[in-house]
Structure formats: structure tokens, C-alpha cells
Amino acid sequence: MRPDDRIGGLVQSLSEHLVKNVEDHLLEGARRDFLQLGFAKLPFLVPDHVKSSVADEIESLVAEHGVRRGMRFKETGGTPRLMRNVRHKEISEHGSVIPAVYASADLLDALGKVAGEPVLTCPYEPERYVITELEQSGDTHGWHWDDYSFALVWVVACPPAEHGGFVQCVPRTYWNKQDPQLHRQFIAQPIHSFELRPGDLYLMRTDTTLHRVYPLSSGRRLIINMGYASQGDLHKQISHETMDGLWNGSRDEQAGQPPRQTV
Predict the structure, then answer these.
(1) Is the separation of the CB atoms in 225 and 167 below 8 Å?
(2) Nearest C-alpha neighbor of 39 from the set 144, 164, 169
């Protein structure tokens, strides 16, 4: 089978699964969680063989193109990013499954049913998909918001909750990049925590849900974040300080260096 035929077959298989196997009551339950928490688990959304193909490509890309990062951002109150990542550029150049799945019209339609509004491909290409790997004790994707409305996260590897790596979020929050006031956000709203397992997917309302990955104490957490936009995002003035600083930072940031403060 030619590579293009294989990719087309995977996307078609995903579409058939969404039509035949993803029942309305599953999407409605996820919709309720999403409205209340800004977070909804969606492990049922993708068939296992498509998950495996995405996971295999992620493993290959992070082994070949992963770059170690250590940074802090004033726009999110100095919270750290300690991780290895593969940027959109490398994924687009060397991957094939991920770009095809990301653009699936049937996947976008299903996500829109959970979100309650159209879910669109992100107009800012670097935020469309990024691989992140937490691999060392203390690694974390610290408290932050995203510039665009939605993220679909595919979990390839994740330790048990007692070793960290689970998601925490504070829904219905507002990002003021000049004065994020994280502690005020924690006081005003409860922090919700969610354990994850390999094979899980979740959708998050990332522009109004403050969130982080709890620091790792052992094990490994490997995911791909697929970022999507709302209609409203297309009409907003959006700057990309944290995204540009993190994913487009220098390639010589190595493990063991202190996190760099971006200003």
C-alpha cells in the first residue's frame, strides 16, 4: 500500500468510526462536562488503530526531532515550562498521519458538537500541533492559558497520578497578559484535577481555562496538543508571546540549564 493510500485509509476509518460508533449520548455527556469544567475526556472519539498510528508517529518524531526546553513566562506569572518538544514545523515536514488527522472534517464536526460551536483549524500554524514530552523529575507544563479557544490532547504515555503528569484546570478565568494574577484566579474558582491514561483524548477550552500539567516525579508523559480556533478567534487581535518564546526558542536549550525568563 502506498503511503498516501494508507493515510487516506486512516482518515476514512476515523470518519466511519465517528459516524457509526460515536453515539449522541457520548457527545452530549462530554458537552455537559465541557460546559461546566472547560474539560471533557473523549477516549471514545478515535478507534484504537488510529490512536496507535498517531502514537507511533509521535514516538518517532520525538526521538528524532525532540528538543529540550526550560523557560518561564511573565505573561503567565513566571510559571515554568520544563519539557522536550517537537514543533509544528518538524511535524509538518516529517510527519504524515498527524497533519491528516488534524484536518479531518468529521473530527472537527464531532469536536464542534462537544464545544457547542464550530471548531476550526487554527489560523496560526505553529499552534496547530505540538508534541510535548515530560521525562525528568520536576518536568511540567506550568499554569497557563492558550491564545486560541480549543485544544484536543492525545495522551500517548502518562504515569499513574501519584507520580504526577495529571491535568489541573480552573475554568471560567480570564487571561490578562500584563497582570495574570494567578493566585487570585485560584481563590476565585476551584481547581479541578483529572487523571489520564495512555489512549485518552481530552478537549479543553484553553483560552478561558487556566490549566497546567502537575509536575512529574517519575515516569514519562508524552502527548500531542492539537490547537483549534473558534469563530471569535478569527476576529480577535492575538499576540503569541508565549507560543513564539517556547516553541520557536533556540534549539540549544539543554536539560539541566535553568529555566530562561522571557520578557
Answers:
(1) no
(2) 169
The one-letter amino acid code at 208 reads: T
C-alpha cell at 243: 507560543
Query: CA-CA distance, 245 to 224, in Å (whole number)?
Result: 19
CA separation for the pair 55, 77 (Å, rounded):
33
Q: Which domains does the chain have, with CATH numbers?
A: 3-249 (2.60.120.620)
The β-bridge partners of 53 are: none
Q: What angle do CA 228, 229, 231 make, to 5 degrees?
A: 150
Q: What is the pLDDT of residues 93-130, one digit of tens each?
A: 999 999 999 999 999 999 999 999 999 999 999 999 99
Q: Whole-prediction pTM value?
A: 0.90
Q: How far apart are CA 260 and CA 263, in angstroms?
A: 10
